Amino acid sequence: MDFLQELVKQNLITAESIQSILSQAQEKYNGNIFVALHEMGLVDAKEILRVKSDFFALPTATVDDTTSSDPAIVRLIPQETISHYQMIPLGLENGVLQVGLVNPASTEAIDALQFISSKSGTPFKMFVIGYEDYLKVVKKQEGISSEVTDALDEFKTDDTLLVQTTGQNTESDIIDITASNAQLTGKKNTDTGKTNLVEDAPVIKIVAVTLRHAVEGNASDIHIENTGSEVRVRFRVDGTLHTSLKLPLNVYSSVVARVKILAKLRLDEKRKPQDGGFSVKISGRKIDFRVSTFPAYHGEKVVLRILDQERGVKKLSDLNLRPDHLEMVKNAISLPYGLIVISGPTGSGKSTTLYAMLNELDKEGKNVVSLENPVEYQMEGVTQSQVMPEIGYTFAAGLRSVLRQDPDVLMVGEIRDVETAQLAIQAALTGHLVLTTLHTNSSIGIVPRLIDMGVDPYLIAPTLRLAIAQRLARKTCEDAKQTQPMNESVRYMIVEQFKDFPEDKKSELGIGSDVVATVPTQTCPDGTKGRLAIFEMFEVSKDVERIILQNPTEQDMYQHLRKQGMITMKEDALLKSVKGEIPLSEVYNF
Fold first, then answer.
1. Do 449 and 406 lie in a common domain?
2. Helix or strand or coil: residue 389?
3. Position 55 pLDDT exceeds 60
4. HSE on the CB side for 272, CA within 13 Å?
5. pLDDT score, position 190
């Protein structure tokens, strides 16, 4: 109201028009007078922006096609917040997030900004922008949403959409998808006898655009879920899920069916989980997608894991291992036989580490065989086999068979049961180097876990050569590193964490008087990009073998290994934080 009176004062509107503007704002624009002014066209947009800047004592932002839409900057302010509060992130300057507001009088918008600032640790500065500039930038930033909107405009709930399958299917294998009820049928042209292809069908566009944007945005997973009121599509980037797209409910069945068709899953099976996969070429790169469906209250949830073949297999030197850890790994994989176990939760990078180990081996002079579920990355020189439990080809069955293939090195994707554990141990005892994974919270927990699964300690002691635990942390951008004197809180944390560490080994930790802090930059607004692994590991020496034979607790093993200078996962994270490899905030996750 006060702003409208200011417009009256400057002879830009009449006093009589105030009530009309307020009514329009309340009825159509949720009380936002700035949107009402724009839509009613009573005042020139430049004049509104000038008065708004003076009235609220805020600078005017320069908004054009170069306004930043970097995903990392946009990530600081979620898309829902941008749309709801009509604000846009303009960029970063000296670590300060610059934000343009259409309605700077909105206390809700300012409260949202303060919450985002406190959560991210990034201060903000407000600018005023015009509503038309806001619309222009949002359209540019939406990206995936704008492309999908075009496809949705073509979508009708009663339309029949033809979708071409991929993989081993032939040209005649065409699926007829009806939006209201996906059915598996064939539809042929009565004149030619061939099935018609409609490559520009809206559902194909929606799924294709989603896949492409996920890959280009460096997402590791895509989540498609029916919330009951809408279809939410989220991308996992650097370990965190972000809502990237919202679709109307009427396209849900068709989108799920399209993904199922690509992954060669049953369209009529919605009561049980299904797993499958497919490959596509995006920007000339082959990208593999692992698909999992899961029955939920409002309908199946679909999750796609993205596997980029070009980025998959790394070298050991690319894993950010401490020098002593790197030496342990190289020593273990150089052994002619024994068991190497990596533990960690799903998505912690275990497969990446296993592939890096295999990459170091002499694959020309050795027979290297892997049992995987599924085969994530193809490695030259490695015989890779995908287990299929549904037909009885399990890890245990594969292990029994592969031992007749004269292997030197075996990689077993995961130990899930006592039979697989015992077979892996037997293989390691009989002259094979076995690499595998297990789900535990720490490297020390691997031994008790194997014992709990029914493996005798006297079999573990002579076979286990290296136990590793790992998780992922957000990685500091190179241009976000800033050397600073170590403050007292960090110094106290280091002293407390290493108080039971052997005194004669503390000099090997490499802790100085400075730390490398993570600061926001224009290219990395939260200071991070990508992830790296945090490790904890120990070699099984003769002393450790004797402890294992005594059926030890985790505390017993920790006390012995600590005296030998073992670094815990939290300590590895802390040391990498001091060196500027990860932000200090990541340490609190371990």
1. yes
2. helix
3. yes
4. 6
5. 39
* CATH number of the domain enclosing 444: 3.40.50.300
Q: Where are the beta strands (DSSP E) in 319-380?
A: 338-343, 368-372
Question: Could you read off the pLDDT of 261-273 as tens digits, one per residue?
Answer: 999 999 989 999 9
pTM (two decimals)? 0.71
Per the CB < 8 A criterion, the answer to whether 561 and 574 are in contact is no
Contact indicator for 571, 508 with CB cutoff of 8 Å:
no
For 244-263, the pLDDT digits (tens) are 888 888 889 989 999 999 99
Segment (H or E) for 73 = helix 71-76
Which two three-digit tokens encode residue 306? 């993205």
Query: For residue 536, what are its two tokens?
Result: 């904890």
330: nearest Cα among 313, 345, 317: 317
What is the spatial distance between Cα 252 and Cα 257, in angstroms, rounded to a whole number? Answer: 8
**Nearest 10 degrees: Cα torsion 80, 83, 87, 88:** 80
The secondary element (H helix, E strand) that includes residue 50 is helix 45-56
Distance CA 284, CA 309 (A): 12
Q: Domain total for the chain?
A: 4
- Rounded CA-CA distance 538/565 in Å is 10
Query: What residue has token string 């790992």?
Result: 470
